[in-house]
């Protein structure tokens, strides 16, 4: 009996507990009306309460308004509380299905917060699961994507009908004398899911193998179980291989110690956490990242949907595109003190503790560090700025000027750290650069009378 099967599904996945208040997403279509009816029949037995939710997308004019009125009437007839809202969708650009999905997610999250809901139930069926898995297969998803529609999500969505076929839904509605609304857009073959539903899956069932839908849903269940098994190992490998967060930076030497199957899952997790979801990615995107990890050459780039991956030396960075190139920045320092600009704060202070060279040749402070400048060789205001293309200077210890680009390559500075690299300039000449220290012409030496000490203030950004 369908009620018993749904009750088992609820128990198996711990979807609802006694005392919970479940929001029920009802569009007015057969699946959602069945969901509401089944949960209403089980509510007393399992000890939960219901609240009907409907979001009117307004995309079909009077038909959409009719759906909202139908849902309100159904909730009133059943004596259930209901909340109906109208969505304002941006239909001028982008994916309309995706925009509508985001609107529903916002609606469910707001309803959960304001109505005190424990979970929100949606009417996804086994048939929806089969369509999702088939679509992801042809789209190029990896093993993780084949898990399809999850019975319970981290956002609090539950799918009690996920082990019930669409045909069974309609049989149950007929046995209960319940009506539903038909959404005319479900027949629109401009939507890819409708092509799968109306043409591809029926052909598979009739001409390839009866039970294809159940086989695809079973594949999703197995994939979800295996992903759950992998989760702890992937998280542990992820943590061991990253050297920075926001954006994520991976040590490719650590990654290459892992089996390729685990590397793929670690990279997939990196994509998910960088982009916020995996909806826009396919397995081919993961494979492109894997090639960057495994290549011998330490440079390379892959531009993915909403994420730019860059390999530099032994590191791989995943970042949103907006982090790829920061704007140039600069600030004047009219006198010794603290200066903040871009991502850096420097202290340029006069230091009276530096002594002139003693007769016995013992070292003074300016011989110990590279960040000591001869005050009298400089002209204020000093300029704190980022690296510019072609910047060249001669650090202490070098016999000729050298491009900062070459210094950074020899010091294995990752390419994404270079644009914001801080330096100090006096009258157009570089006097100091991070890590490489003072310019030879501006460095404190035996004849120095007043010393400026340059130091980067840790933990403070400009």
Automatic annotation (TrEMBL):
Keywords, alphabetical: ATP-binding, Cytoplasm, Ligase, Nucleotide-binding, tRNA processing
CDD domains xrefs: TilS_N
Compartments where found: Cytoplasm
Catalytic EC class: ligase
Classification via InterPro entries: Lysidine-tRNA-synth_C, Rossmann-like_a/b/a_fold, TilS/TtcA_N, tRNA_Ile_lys_synt, tRNA_Ile_lys_synt_N, tRNA_Ile_lys_synt_subst-bd
Protein name, UniProt field: tRNA(Ile)-lysidine synthase
Role description: Ligates lysine onto the cytidine present at position 34 of the AUA codon-specific tRNA(Ile) that contains the anticodon CAU, in an ATP-dependent manner. Cytidine is converted to lysidine, thus changing the amino acid specificity of the tRNA from methionine to isoleucine.
Biological processes annotated in GO: tRNA modification
Reactions catalysed: cytidine(34) in tRNA(Ile2) + L-lysine + ATP = lysidine(34) in tRNA(Ile2) + AMP + diphosphate + H(+)
Gene3D superfamilies reported for this sequence: 1.20.59.20, HUPs
Family statement: Belongs to the tRNA(Ile)-lysidine synthase family.
UniProt note: domains: The N-terminal region contains the highly conserved SGGXDS motif, predicted to be a P-loop motif involved in ATP binding.
GO molecular function, one term: ATP binding
NCBIfam families membership: lysidine_TilS_C, lysidine_TilS_N
Domain of life per record: Bacteria
Source species of the chain: Paludibaculum fermentans
EC number assigned by the record: 6.3.4.19
Domain Lysidine-tRNA(Ile) synthetase C-terminal, first and last residues per copy: 382-454
GO CC aspect terms: cytoplasm
UniProt: ATP binding residues: 27-32
The keyword Cytoplasm belongs to this UniProt entry's keyword annotation: yes
Gene it is expressed from: tilS
């Amino acid at each position: 009996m369908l009620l018993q099967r749904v009750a088992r599904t609820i128990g198996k996945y711990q979807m609802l507990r006694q005392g919970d208040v479940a929001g029920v997403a009802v569009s007015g279509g057969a699946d959602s009306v069945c969901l509401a009816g089944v949960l209403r029949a089980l509510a007393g037995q399992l000890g939960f309460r219901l609240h009907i939710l409907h979001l009117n997308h307004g995309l079909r004019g009077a038909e959409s308004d009719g759906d909202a009125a139908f849902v309100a009437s159904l909730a009133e007839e059943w004596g259930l509380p209901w909340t109906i809202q109208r969505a304002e969708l941006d239909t001028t650009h982008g994916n309309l299905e995706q925009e509508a999905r985001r609107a529903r997610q916002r609606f469910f999250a707001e309803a959960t917060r304001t109505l005190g809901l424990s979970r929100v139930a949606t009417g996804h069926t086994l048939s929806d699961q089969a369509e999702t898995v088939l679509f992801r297969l042809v789209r190029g998803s990896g093993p993780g994507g084949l898990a399809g529609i999850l019975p319970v999500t981290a956002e609090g969505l539950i799918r009690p009908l996920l082990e019930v076929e669409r045909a069974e839904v309609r049989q149950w509605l007929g046995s209960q004398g319940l009506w539903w609304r038909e959404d005319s857009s479900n027949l629109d073959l401009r939507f890819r899911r409708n092509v799968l539903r109306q043409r591809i899956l029926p052909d598979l069932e009739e001409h390839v193998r009866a039970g294809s839908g159940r086989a695809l849903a079973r594949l999703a269940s197995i994939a979800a179980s295996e992903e759950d098994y992998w989760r702890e190992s992937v998280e542990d490998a992820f943590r061991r291989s990253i050297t920075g967060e926001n954006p994520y930076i991976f040590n490719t030497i650590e990654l290459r110690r892992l089996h390729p199957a685990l590397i793929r899952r670690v990279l997939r997790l990196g994509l998910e956490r960088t982009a916020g979801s995996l909806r826009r990615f396919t397995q081919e995107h993961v494979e492109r990242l894997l090639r960057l990890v495994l290549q011998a050459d330490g440079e390379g780039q892959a531009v993915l949907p909403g994420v730019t991956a860059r390999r530099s030396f032994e590191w791989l960075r995943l970042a949103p595109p907006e982090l790829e190139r920061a704007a140039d920045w600069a600030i004047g320092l009219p006198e010794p003190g603290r200066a903040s600009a871009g991502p850096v704060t420097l202290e340029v202070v006069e230091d009276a503790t530096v002594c002139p060279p003693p007769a016995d040749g013992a070292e003074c402070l300016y011989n110990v560090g590279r960040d000591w400048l001869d005050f009298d060789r400089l002209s204020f205001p000093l300029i704190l700025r980022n690296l510019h293309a072609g910047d060249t200077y001669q650090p202490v210890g070098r016999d000729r000027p050298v491009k900062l680009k070459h210094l950074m390559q020899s010091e294995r500075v990752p390419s994404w750290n270079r644009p914001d690299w801080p330096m100090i300039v006096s009258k157009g000449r570089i006097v100091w650069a991070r890590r490489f220290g003072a310019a030879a012409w501006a460095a404190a030496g035996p004849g120095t009378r007043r010393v400026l000490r340059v130091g980067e203030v840790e933990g403070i950004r400009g």
